[in-house]
Design a protein that fits this description.
The chain is an alpha/beta fold. It contains 15 helices and 30 strands. Strands 11-12-17-18-19-20-21-22 form an eight-stranded parallel beta barrel, surrounded by four helices. Strands 2-10-7-8-6-4-5 form a seven-stranded mixed sheet, covered by helices on one side.
Length: 622
């Protein structure tokens, strides 16, 4: 009897010891994106442990799915899986996380999360809002919480999105990603309360979506023989065949996966430029008839769709007919960026179309600019007939903008602001802030990027609608982020420091810039270019701190461009030595003999209009 009692006492001591060792961790509501209002009370926190359940109104399948998502999120974080239960009207649950709807919440995507020691209530006007409340709760759990009980502070969180369009872009043409990666990407969007996945499916480097009427788009257009190594136009290639595409059924699977997470998939079929993959498959749709190949390099190419060829226009309408069957989104992105007019200017069919449609040159636009507008407007009307509307990159502002077009402003903010003032919806994705394919650390230790320098701080600080914007701008501005881009522009850090002398500069890590052209005149084999060179230096101080330096330099040079003729299109580069840089705070840094700027430009010559110099590259520190 004594032995048995000792065993019982020992078991009790062990149980007590295990209980006292149970880890408790505190949740933190300082999450990204930060809720608009967090009010904490002095009441006891709610204890999230393996005895907690998640409830929803019985019969609401969307809230049931939200509850199942939340249960899965908690399992990922803690290792235990809260059971999910539907509640009948009037039924309550103790020590539970309750999901519900509340018509008094003003915003369709807004939510209120209330925490007491007895339970948690997440309400939204719609199931979307409840889902975002679940994301906030999920993110408040510490990253390392396996097996732990979680203390959630008592109080209330009220939140709603500032923008109805919150998107991320993914380019799968230059670099193809498998289906599972796309799903992981969508999960990350959901984690950050984003509601739009912008899927860039076609480009010069690969056609990635099955179009059944045109099978060669994927049989031929999805494959390239090799890929450039390092920077664009390095002249080095890996000689490794590369390809991949998504079937229509796979794309529909992604659409469904995203919809379950309240995310809309917007497809992009870039036209009429960035079409080399399509031309490689169907060369008759180009102005020259080819031969063409899927591009192994990055950049802008003068071979584009022949808009004067009715076969090409029918091709676009056929493609869009299938795209709208795959993707139910109201918006369809049709690109419109970086389409050189060179081929159209020499193409008899395109010139015939210009004449037939009465497209005229004026002081602001060429007839070829208006030819692109004709293309965009025609495809817009076709998509309108399917109940859809278009998005185009901000280059579509360079002609007659299609009436109902949404403008995606990527080359800066001006395009979006101008579009909004004209009554168009605008999605703000300006390169200096929203492009995530730039250097985020020292280039010496980083993977190759397109160039530039961006920081998480700068991206997160971006305000798409200036405080002094008028009501029309505020009404039409939306926001987006890009994970892969085309051209890198200057990045001016908001809190840059200026070195007093060169002794304060131990090592220049990166020099990036943009040439802003004020005037350019054709001088035969030379171009007289006047403007301003905006730049940003990233450097390390002797103490090891990273600093940035930004400014602008007047630029007035005669550039030699031998062998260039009227309406020719080529790439060139030139050097500028011994510059004195004027700094914004009136200090001056003489960089004579320290740095040489090499500017690479894509240049379009026109005998009447002069020369249009387009920056495409970077200012390098040599």
């Amino acid at each position: 009897m004594l032995t048995k009692l000792n065993h019982v006492l020992l078991a009790g001591v062990v149980a007590l010891a295990c209980s006292s060792c149970q880890t408790e961790k505190k949740a933190d509501y300082q999450v990204i994106p930060l809720p608009q209002e967090v009010v904490l009370t002095q009441e006891k926190p709610f204890l999230l442990n393996k005895n907690v359940s998640i409830t929803y109104p019985e019969g609401n399948l969307l809230l049931k799915r939200n509850a199942e998502f939340l249960s899965g999120y908690i399992r990922q974080a803690t290792g235990y899986t809260p059971p999910v239960k539907g509640l009948k009207d009037g039924e309550t649950a103790k020590h539970a996380i309750n999901l519900g709807l509340d018509a008094d919440i003003a915003n369709k995507e807004g939510y209120v999360l209330t925490t007491t020691s007895e339970g948690i209530q997440i309400n939204g006007q719609t199931e979307n809002g409840v889902f975002y409340g679940c994301q906030t709760l999920r993110k408040s759990i510490p990253a390392e919480a396996q097996g732990a009980d979680i203390l959630l502070p008592a109080g209330s969180i009220k939140d709603e999105p500032r923008f109805t369009y919150r998107g991320m872009h993914l380019d799968v043409c230059r670099h193809f990603f498998p289906l599972e990666f796309i799903k992981e990407y969508i999960d990350l969007l959901a984690l950050h309360n984003m509601n739009t996945f912008h899927w860039h499916l076609t480009d010069d480097q690969g056609w990635r979506i099955e179009i059944k009427k045109y099978p060669k788009l994927t049989e031929v257009g999805s494959k390239r023989n090799c890929t450039v190594v390092g920077k664009a136009r390095s002249g080095k290639y890996d000689n490794i065949p590369y390809g991949g595409f998504y079937t229509q059924e796979q794309a529909k699977e992604i659409v469904k996966y995203a919809q379950e997470r309240y995310i809309t998939v917007i497809p992009e079929v870039d036209l009429p430029g960035h079409m080399l993959a399509a031309l490689a498959a169907y060369p008759d749709m180009g102005c020259t008839g080819g031969p063409y190949k899927v591009s192994p390099d990055w950049g802008i190419f003068e071979d584009v769709l022949c808009i004067g060829n009715e076969q090409s226009m029918q091709f676009l309408e056929d493609v869009m007919a299938e795209i709208t069957e795959i993707f139910p989104s109201k918006l369809v992105h049709i690109g419109g960026d970086e389409a050189p007019r060179t081929r159209w200017a020499k193409c008899p069919k395109c010139q015939a179309r210009i004449k037939a449609e009465g497209l005229k040159t004026d002081k602001q636009h060429t007839a070829e600019d208006r030819l692109q507008s004709y293309c965009m407007t025609r495809i817009e009307k076709f998509l309108n007939s399917k109940g859809r509307q278009i998005i185009g990159w901000d280059e579509i502002l360079e002609g007659d903008v299609a009436p109902n077009a949404t403008v995606m402003s990527w080359r800066g903010v001006e395009g979006g602001l101008n579009a909004a003032k004209a009554g168009h919806n605008a999605i703000m994705t300006p390169n200096p802030y929203a492009y995530l394919d730039q250097y985020q650390e020292e280039p010496e230790i980083a993977p190759v990027t397109i160039g530039g320098y961006n920081t998480l701080k700068k991206t997160y600080s971006y305000n798409p609608v200036p405080d002094d914007a008028n009501e029309l701008v505020k009404k039409h501005i939306h926001t987006n982020r890009r994970s892969a881009g085309v051209i890198s522009q200057v990045t001016l850090d908001e809190d840059f420091n200026v070195p007093d002398t060169l002794d304060d500069v131990e090592h220049i890590i990166l020099c990036n810039g943009e040439l802003e052209i004020e005037s350019a005149k054709n001088l035969g084999e030379r171009a007289a270019v006047r403007g301003k060179l905006k730049f940003c230096l990233l450097y390390r101080t002797p103490s090891g701190k990273l600093r940035t330096l930004a400014g602008g330099i007047p630029f007035d040079e005669n550039i030699n461009m031998p062998g260039l003729s009227e309406n020719d299109y080529m790439q060139t580069e030139w050097e500028v030595d011994d510059l004195n840089i004027g700094i914004i705070n009136s200090r001056k840094l003489n960089v004579k003999s320290l740095v040489t700027f090499r500017l690479q430009a894509e240049t379009i010559y026109d005998a009447e209009a002069g020369v249009d110099v387009r920056f495409d590259g970077e200012v390098e520190f040599l």
